[in-house]
Amino acid sequence: MQAKAELPAAVIFDMDGVLVNSNPFHVQKWAELLNNHKIPFNEEALPRQILGQRNDHAFRLFFGAQMEEEEMRRLEASLEENFRQAFRLHAKPMPGLEALIVQLRAAGIPIALASSAMPENIDFVVDTLGFRPYFSSMMSGDDVHLPKPHPEIYLKTAGRLGVEPNACVAFEDSFVGIEAVKSAGMKCIAISSTFPAQELRTRTGADLVASDFQKLSLPLLRAMFLPNGRQS
What we know:
The protein is α/β, with parallel strands linked by helices. The chain has 2 domains: 4-21 and 91-223, Rossmann fold (3-Layer(aba) Sandwich), CATH 3.40.50; 23-89, DNA polymerase, domain 1 (Orthogonal Bundle). The chain has 10 helices and 6 strands. Strands 3-2-1-4-5-6 form a 6-stranded parallel beta sheet.
């Protein structure tokens, strides 16, 4: 186990709503897909039903549990291609993100990506931002059997990095993502890009809630491992 002074031993990022503010585009493309297929949905509930989840969960929710895999993959490919086309000109890092990553790299702290997104979307976002060299490991929803809120993706990421889960900090924006992080035993910083900060504070076990990365720093991450390190 790493000494306290060395924590965090690794920092793990979700992607949508964390690296980039992409979730409004995902919601828009899902709404278009459902409208095109004349499938009713609640606009207010839609973000909670699709964000942070793997697409297979949402497809079975709206199209039925017996949806054939081939049809699901066909619709998913079209849905996500439409998302990438719409988001391409808007893809930029969340405020303060790159400055924090530079601090982590200077301190020799491994950085990883653990996203429910499909590999094509991860490649698209990471390469559009030019962030691929930053990540020691990148895992997609295709790399796990059990999607968020199960902690599998975070436990596997810690294993790949060779660190204990309880020595890690992870950044998430969704309810299912935060639950996955905390179930893995990690410290969690919730980014309120997708859901209201007060709701994240009261309805999740996040250790800290921030609007973006501008006020976050390595010393703050280190302080989370001290006694009474939970922030507001």
